Amino acid sequence: MATKIGVISDTHSAGSGRDLPETILDALRGVDMILHCGDLECLGVLDYLEEVSPLLAVRGYEDPLEDGDRLAMTTRVVKVEGVSIGMVHDIQWPGPKIPTTPDGAGLVLPDGNGRDILARKFKEPVDVVLFGDTHEELVMDWDGVLIMNPGSPTYPGRKHKRGVLGTIGILQIDGEEATARIVNLEPSE
Predict the structure, then answer these.
(1) Which sequence spans correspond to the domains of the chain?
(2) CATH architecture, domain 3-184
(3) Looking at the predicted structure, is the pLDDT value of residue 189 above 60?
(4) DSSP designation for 173
(5) 0.90 surpassed by pTM
(6) By mean pLDDT, which of 35-39, 105-109, 185-189 is the weakest?
(7) Residue 189, class by beta-carbon neighbours within 10 Å (0-12 exposed, 13-18 middle, 19+ buried)?
(8) What order do you get walking across the sheet with 55-58 strand by strand?
(9) What is the number of other CB atoms lying within 10 angstroms of the CB of residue 152?
């Protein structure tokens, strides 16, 4: 049976965390776990999302500290079935640096084998990399590593549009296979 993971980043909730739109929770219902890639701004976001499913996160730039294993400092590797998932807020840090394109919607891949470069970043080989920071959704393959940025559900795009819902990601793990898709939270017309 496959494992369904909700991937979210850049929620930027400076309140209690309960200010996140219910649409986000609705889109995450039915997932087996949630992975948050940072810039949550308050720990209440994690508590609120945990009402839907167990959660692990990495810190963004201004996120608070928390004791325990739920919120990692900079990177973490989560093992699900036969897949190692590397999580980081900004894919540029820690090194090796992997720059984003000027519009934030893509990556400028450095020379060398992507699998090896990413293994140095996470201090072990990974099959999937999840990151945030740019607020731009992205799904791509780099030398056999699936890379996903779920975008931002609350401040989508480079201009961080307010009042418009953005995106989250769904990562499906089946044995040693991983697939990713972006979920647009705005109703289609």
Answers:
(1) 3-184
(2) 4-Layer Sandwich (3.60)
(3) no
(4) E
(5) yes
(6) 185-189
(7) exposed
(8) 71-72, 55-58, 33-36, 3-8, 167-174, 177-184
(9) 26
